[in-house]
Amino acid sequence: MNNLWTTIAHTAGRRIKSKTFVIATALMAAFLIVIINIDNIIDSFAGDSDDGDTASEVAVVDETEAENGVSFGEMLASMEDGTYDYSLYTDGNIDAAIEAAEDGEFEYVLALTGDTSNLQADLFTSGTGFMSGMEINQDVQRAKEAAATAQLDLTDEELAMIFTPVTFNERPINGDGQTEESQMQAYWMVYGLVFAIYLIVITFGTMIATEVATEKSSRVMELIVSSINPVTQMAGKILGIGVAGLVNLLVLAAAAVAGFQLSGDDFLQSLVGDALDLSLIAYALLFIFLGYFLYGGVAAMLGALVSRAEEVNQAIQPLIFIAMIAFFIAIFGLNTPDAPFIQVLSYVPFFTPQLLFLRIGMGTVPGWEIAVIIGILILSAVLINLLAARIYKGGVLMYGKFSFKSGIQQALRLSKKEN
Fold it and tell me: pLDDT value at position 50?
């Protein structure tokens, strides 16, 4: 046990104290903060070139048939809480307004025709105007509603009754469904876990294999094997890399929280609101833990089969391909979590961490099925690590050209001789 803790401390300490780890973690944390605040950064640079926060000007050419003294152009011009500054154009017709806009006097030209019951609005803009068109359309709709209610001569109570929003609640049937808020939270958590598992497999799996291969190529492994049991060494390296990875993830999580705090965005608050399902967090942590040990054992085994660090990428390719397949299936399954092939593949241990969490987060899975699949995953992780330990025990003594099939056979033979 002392050798295990010594190996864990040595592996984790060397990784965490290395300049590469510190610089890479710092750069990733800074990059994450910048990405979260990219809108604010762009706005700050854009604000330096502007005189201030001025609303876009819209020239309104009002050709509507006024009823009861109602003028849509004047109503739009009187709006003070909107994004756009409407001004009633009285210097000519629509063609004159468009010419004025071309000369830079206005950014948009809005032509109104018809009457209250049949109002038509045409927006002229130099750009695509997609979002602008939506907002201006809403402003015109508000003006039409105000004009219509004014013509009907409604009382304040009647107006309040019309414009009071509907109290709309979405609730699950018999506790089996999900509300829109919980669905969005589950969606982003599943999306995050899919990326987390994929990055953990590629990054930390490569770290484990490279760690073993580097010690073999420098002949340090021969000294370590003589003093520490290879199985204990493998477990220590997996746990040590896991500790270093945990530190890296905690730093990135802290950077994400700091980034959202600096941005003033309420996304983080909405994600961890009152409706947050704590069981999803527990499942996420469980699947990350089990997935790491499942893939980590295979990565350590593959690292023991190579003699040089340059061969690690070649050796670990099958593991990366499996992770990529699981990644793309999970991304596709975000919109179809109850598809039969996803249900079947969730029983496959290498796909279970992503796909079972996907099914739990985005759909409904019976408790007995969750227990069975998790049991299969735990049993598979134990068996795969036991097999990986035997291959690792013989593989660390092997040198020569990497061969997956013959390398495993030779490692198993050497492992039996060591016993």
Answer: 46
Last residue in a domain, options 109, 134, 163 = 163
Q: Hunting for tokens 């770290």 — which residue is that?
A: 207
DSSP string covering 186-214: HHHHHHHHHHHHHHHHHHHHHHHHHHHHH
- The terminus-to-terminus CA distance of the chain in angstroms comes to 20
Same structural domain, 227 and 109: no
Q: Are the C-beta atoms of residues 60 and 88 closer than 8 Å to each other?
A: yes
Using CB atoms within 10 Å of the CB of residue 228, give its burial: 0 to 12 exposed, 13 to 18 middle, 19+ buried: middle
**Could you tell me if 150 and 249 lie in one domain?**
no
Place of tokens 């990219």: 38
Number of domains in the chain: 2
What pLDDT sits at residue 419?
56
Cα dihedral 27, 30, 35, 41 sign:
negative
What gap in Å lies between CA 291 and CA 328, rounded to an integer?
16
Residue 139 belongs to a domain with what CATH number? 3.40.190
Q: Which residue has the tokens 């809480």?
A: 81
- CA-to-CA dists, residue 149 to 116, 160, 163, angstroms: 10, 11, 11
Query: What average pLDDT values come out for the chain (419 residues) when binned by 10 residues?
Result: 77 84 88 80 60 67 70 76 79 83 82 80 71 79 78 73 68 53 69 78 81 70 63 82 86 84 64 59 86 88 78 83 89 85 92 88 86 94 87 73 73 68
The two tokens of residue 378 are 């735990």
